[in-house]
Amino acid sequence: MPESRLRLGKGATFFVKSRLKRLPQEDETWEADFPALPLAITQSATHYLGMVLTQPDGFFLAELEVERKPTVNDLATLLAHAMQWPIVEGSHRPRRIHLRGHPQWQELFPHLKEIGIEVAVKSQLPKVAEAYREYLQDVSKVRPARKVKLSAEAQSVEKLFPAIAQWVRDGHIEIGDQEGFGFVVRALDYGGMVFEDNKPRTLAEALVALEKGLKKWFKEQKIEIESPDCRQE
User: Average pLDDT, stretch 132-144?
Assistant: First the structure.
């Protein structure tokens, strides 16, 4: 099991405060998060890709993939790499870091303050979201293109579940037995899990629950569900 309590220092997370504090500080704002990655057929657990990007330019500074739910130590490691060994630019500290409000991150906040970095909790991280969409597009390019026209039966599925059809254009869903929790259905986007239900016992029940949950989410976000577009080239 990964260490859930914060462990700082060389050999633990590379987050050595005395070393990081000596780095030059730039008047920059960074975004950092661990979006959930699409689940491969061979995987039994969701993987996450840690990303650090600058605002407003969206320069990619660091990444870190973890094969289970990320901990505060993963975030500390990701930020330490971004400061000491960024993909672009030289080693430096930012003035501000924007994070999502995950409770496990909070243990790191006072340590960031000690090295002169202000933390702001945000519900949206636009640069991380943009990088995540580009990642999904790159993944989709290596998949075989569908050359056949959808059957009437397949088109009717999209009409029955329009919210699911709209969701999978940008996010992804998981249905089945996973991680010892039995039969579950999930909807994930760049920020992680948006919907989960472990009550369904059949595929039909799972789809109905997912459609209902996603319709509620779209309504809360004030996003209109589009009519399914089933035209194929």
Answer: 69
* 167-174 long-range Cβ contacts below 8 angstroms, 24+ apart: 167/214, 170/133, 170/136, 172/38, 172/39, 173/210, 174/39, 174/46
C-alpha to C-alpha distance for 233 and 224, rounded to whole angstroms: 25
Integer angstrom CA distances of residue 184 from 47, 83, 170, 213: 17, 38, 21, 13
Cα–Cα–Cα angle for 100, 54, 85, nearest 5°? Answer: 100
Distance between CA atoms of 186 and 91, rounded to whole angstroms? 39
- Whole-angstrom distance, CA of residue 173 vs CA of residue 36: 11
Query: Global pTM?
Result: 0.64
Beta-bridged to residue 196, according to DSSP, are 186
DSSP 93: B
Q: Measured in whole angstroms, how far is the alpha carbon of residue 32 from the centre of its chain?
A: 10
Type and span of the H or E element at 156: helix 152-160
Q: For residues 71 and 107, is the Cβ–Cβ distance under 8 A?
A: no
- Most confident among 126-130, 176-180, 189-193 (mean pLDDT): 126-130
